[in-house]
Amino acid sequence: MIRLLAFCLCLLGFATQAAATFTLGVLPIHSARVLAERYEPLRAYLENHLKQPVRIESAADFARFQARTLHGDFDLTITPSHFARLAQKDAGFLPLAQFTPDHDALLVTSSDHPLAGVGDLRGKQLAVIDRLAVTVMATLSYLEEQGLEAERDYRVAEHRTHASAAYSLMTGLSVAAVTTSQGMLQIPEYLRRKLVVQKHIADIPAFVFLARPDTPRSQAEHLKTLLLEFSAEAEGLGFLRNIGYSAVVAASETRLKRADAYLKATRKALSP
After folding, report:
1. Tally of structural domains, the chain
2. Any idea what the CATH number is for the domain that residue 187 is in?
3. The Cα angle at residue 147 between residues 141 and 149, in degrees rounded to 5
4. Which of 39, 87, 159, 232 is within CB 3.0–4.6 Å of 93 for a Cys-Cys bond?
5. Does 7 map to a domain?
6. Cβ proximity of 24 and 55 under 8 Å
7. CA distance 272 to 205
8. Could you read off the pLDDT of 221-264 as tens digits, one per residue?
9. Full residue range of the structural domain in which residue 107 is found
10. Which of 151, 180, 204 lies at the terminal end of a domain, its last residue?
11. Separation CA 256–CA 37 (nearest Å)
12. For residue 9, what is the enclosing H or E element?
């Protein structure tokens, strides 16, 4: 009887392990519904190859997403390069792969009300998705170099999505917005046609796929292989085109360290 009970408990343990849910953390750059729709091909692919349920999760904003990442809430995290670099350097997280091409920080205006120069921002409002977005940080740094300090010379208004930031230009609430080429794809076409790129600010490494520090090396390598293979499949290529990328490549120290210029400001912004 004891042996039978032990055997049953062993089977129960295997069943529980097999049914364990793998959590994919995705940065909150869309509503929960849109995130689920856009990342469904990747979720389904991972579920099929990992042979376990895969669930997409996010957070209310960038700061809370990074907090969840560092807390270990996600088995695999898709996160900005400056967040990935902090997690790698400060907590031992494992960068596996990255999207390409880079993110480009773009300062855009309405074609109906273009700016003669960035100085025209003075006394006006700039629309952004989140101050912790590395493209926003790069833009605010550039504007400061031009003698414009946020909240002193112009106001910064945070929006939930790139589309919302762009819409604020049409309503006149803001005179400029920060976006990226990938963010442009989130904006309805009728709005995109009314946008003008005022300034290409910077090129920054794109999102990174990050594994937790406690991930066994063999599992980390398996995940990395799956991600690289996904980008070579027809379904993966379609997924990448839909979100504005061309490929997934192995993460490299050379590429990642390009985000180091933003780490001091990121730590400061994340500190209580």
Report:
1. 2
2. 3.40.190.10
3. 60
4. 87
5. no
6. yes
7. 27
8. 999 999 999 999 999 999 999 999 999 999 999 999 999 999 99
9. 103-204
10. 204
11. 28
12. helix 2-19
